[in-house]
Amino acid sequence: MLYVIIPVFNRWRYTAECLVSLRAQTNQEFRTVVVDDGSTDETAAELARGYPEVEVVTGDGNLFWTAGVNLGIRRALALGATRVLTLNNDVVAAPTFVAEMLAAADQNPTAVLGALEFDAATGEVIYGGERLDFRTNTRRDLLHELPAGLRTGLHPVTYLPGRGLLIPKAVIDKVGLFDEKRLPHYLADFDYTSVARRAGFPVLCNYAAQLSTYPEESGQTLTRKHRSVKGYYQHLFGIRGGGNLVNFTHFAIKNCPAIYLPYFLLNGYARRLVGYFMH
């Protein structure tokens, strides 16, 4: 059984839209677990009132993304999950999303699967996976390599984001859960999928499974809209900082081949130090 895990903190408008899109799935062979990490808006009341099919797990407001997802996965496994799918609350699943994910999972039972993503506001395709060259710390965006007519099928990638990520239980049994101790928020998803790939599991972006997202609502985007000394510090050292130097160091040490590590670290530090001020 597939369990969909959605960590949330406030922003009920997005959560409601996400849950409505799950109700509209052509394949309903899944259950949903929402991890409500101490929301102070109407989230708890609305979940209880209008979504009896959703299993709700609550936190104290200090879980952040990684611990929240892990709490949901633990609950799903206790309920008998054979696959889990992590989903951010600010995404909208196309009606065939679950069906396409399950079809690909049936054909590739040990694969970790991601999705093709579109901008919810414009309809423009914005993410189709990437491949990282650890030697040079350069990324190849698959969307730039594939003409629109060839954006189909499964594509091997280096890692995947957690906002629409299917993980077979076999991967969890071997790799464990997300690294909430060292990567409490950002990079935990890229780290997990990279570790899974290095452990021998295929990591594939499934172009038939499609999501719409709100890129302007990401923490990194919001932080950079109002640049300040405090924002710069949060960018480099805050738990929600997209350029967090400590998180990047953990990711690099865990995933970069040792021979390339010195350059990868120095290049990555430089990018994060100046990236806050770049458009």
TrEMBL record:
Record has Isomerase as a keyword: no
One MF annotation (Gene Ontology) recorded for this entry: glycosyltransferase activity
Coiled-coil blocks: none
Tree of life domain: Bacteria
Gene3D superfamilies linked: Spore Coat Polysaccharide Biosynthesis Protein SpsA, Chain A
A matching Pfam family: Glycos_transf_2
Keywords recorded for this protein, A-Z: Glycosyltransferase, Transferase
KW Glycosyltransferase (keyword) present: yes
Residue ranges constituting the Glycosyltransferase 2-like domain according to the UniProt record: 4-116
Family label: Belongs to the glycosyltransferase 2 family.
Protein name: Family 2 glycosyl transferase
Source organism of the structure: Hymenobacter coccineus
